[in-house]
Design a protein that fits this description.
The complex is a heterodimer. By secondary structure, chain A is mainly beta. Chain A is built from no helices and eleven strands. Classes of the chains: A mainly beta, B mainly beta.
Chain lengths: ~110, ~110
């Protein structure tokens, strides 16, 4: 089975530009998570969905960040406008349920904002 | 207090050594516990789940102490390939997966 698929794998963009990260969870998983990882702050949960519904977005840094999950097989994380401090690795992950089962990560989207 | 805390590390140990990592969590209602491994510039991957009775997988042993809200991971006969960051993960009931900051391990030849 395919794992969690993220795109793009790497992106370099200029400050002020819009960035859209994409994720396809593992088929059959009903929970999807967006994490951000930096050296300074470690792995931070931004938002998670259960059955396509956002459950907790308290980790989203500010209004520049938005996430959608229009269906069970696709999610996007959008940053508009992007800033240099948004440079990080953004991981998408999925799980069969919110708690109890393991979580599987995609390979990450490496974002650099210059 | 952070929800999940780990030994800051890094741990630098020689090949063949035994090394132990500790993790504490603050939410007493937490239901599930895991250890993940993250290699440099890679995504975190499940190493092992942690069961109440403790469990072993080859050279790796995980222990859970609910009364003390404490989880441990023991690695015996460490290999060069064990070098990575080890993340403690806790799943409070009805909530998301909370990751600790990780402990970096370097196994030296």
């Amino acid at each position: 089975d395919a794992g969690v698929i993220q795109s793009p794998r790497h992106e370099v963009t200029e400050m002020g530009q819009e960035v859209t990260l994409r994720c396809k969870p593992i088929s059959g998983h009903n929970s999807l998570f967006w994490y951000r990882q930096t050296m300074m702050r470690g792995l931070e949960l931004l938002i998670y969905f259960n059955n396509n519904v956002p459950i907790d977005d308290s980790g989203m840094p500010e209004d520049r960040f938005s996430a959608k999950m229009p269906n069970a097989s696709f999610s996007t994380l959008k940053i508009q406008p992007s800033e240099p401090r948004d440079s990080a690795v953004y991981f998408c992950a999925s799980s069969h349920s919110i708690s109890g089962n393991t979580i599987y990560f995609g390979e990450g989207s490496w974002l650099t904002v210059v | 207090r952070k929800e999940v805390e780990q030994d800051p590390g890094p741990f630098n140990v020689p090949e063949g050594a035994t090394v132990a990592f500790n993790c504490t969590y603050s939410n007493s209602a937490s239901q599930s516990f895991f250890w993940y491994r993250q290699d440099c510039r890679k995504e975190p991957k499940l190493l092992m789940s942690v069961y109440s009775s403790g469990n072993e997988d080859g050279r790796f042993t995980a222990q859970l102490n609910r009364a003390s809200q404490y989880i441990s991971l023991l690695i015996r006969d460490s290999k060069l390939s064990d070098s990575a960051t080890y993340l403690c993960v806790v799943t409070p009931y009805g909530q998301n997966f909370v990751f600790g900051p990780g402990t970096r391990l370097s196994v030296l030849p």
